[in-house]
Structure to design on (244 residues):
């Protein structure tokens, strides 16, 4: 199964003028932009939630993980254009590779082509200030925990859009928590008003098939379906390579 194309990206608003974030974001005058960042992360979290199995009212469905990501990114960009969104363009910046649970980052060249590279701390420190990088890493650490806990046996759940949506909610909330804390520490230091983030998940919510679907029966049906799809893909690969 080609999972690399399913790399779980973290969306961030990339500055129009350059890919680089300001090198500093720990000054009092940085508070408003950090607050905007927090609002954006909360918006993304809420959007992924609507695709998750926890959404009880009108859950959205996505055809694939790629479809899920495209739909969230498009909706995010549409929201950014509204007065509430406050402008900018959202792009994937960093991600976790479901194949080996390792970090990767997205790099766009001058022609606008994006490549995915293994995580490089030095490069990331050049591109993002500490506060931003720290919350991005908190987000990715959450994906890495899910990825490792799933193990080889259940890894195929990372190809199921609503499971991935649930894992994104958890990851965005981990990032939001880190960002909220830095903002409030900075606000206190600057004698400014801090902020209170909203959370949709219990902090102890575990991201496993059983905990996300809350029904053994549903988990088994999805696992069976994934196994069948894998067998069919393997068979197709075999006959395909035989012809070449
Ligand atoms: Zn993510």
């Amino acid at each position: 199964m080609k999972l690399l194309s399913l790399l779980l990206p973290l969306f961030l608003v990339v500055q129009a003028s350059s890919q680089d974030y300001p090198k500093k974001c720990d000054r009092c005058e940085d508070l408003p932009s950090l607050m905007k960042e927090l609002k954006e992360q909360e918006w993304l979290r809420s959007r992924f939630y609507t695709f998750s199995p926890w959404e009880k009212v009108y859950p959205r469905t996505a055809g694939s993980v790629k479809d899920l990501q495209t739909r969230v990114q498009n909706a995010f960009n549409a929201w950014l254009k509204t007065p509430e969104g406050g402008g900018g363009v959202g792009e994937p910046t960093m991600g976790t590779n479901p194949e080996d649970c390792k970090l990767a980052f997205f790099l766009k060249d001058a022609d606008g082509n994006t490549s995915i590279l293994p995580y490089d701390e030095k490069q990331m420190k050049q591109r993002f200030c500490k506060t931003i990088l720290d919350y991005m890493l908190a987000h990715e650490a959450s994906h890495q925990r899910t990825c490792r806990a799933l193990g080889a046996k259940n890894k195929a759940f990372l190809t199921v859009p609503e499971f991935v949506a649930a894992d994104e909610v958890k990851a965005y909330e981990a990032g939001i928590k880190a960002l909220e804390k830095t903002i409030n520490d900075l606000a206190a230091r600057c004698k400014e008003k801090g902020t209170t983030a909203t959370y949709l998940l219990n902090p102890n919510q575990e991201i496993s098939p059983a905990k996300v679907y809350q029904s053994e029966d549903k988990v088994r049906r999805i696992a069976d379906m994934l196994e069948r799809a894998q067998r069919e893909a393997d068979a197709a690969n075999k006959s395909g390579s035989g012809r070449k």
In short: The chain has a mean pLDDT of 89. The two ends are 20 Å apart (CA to CA).
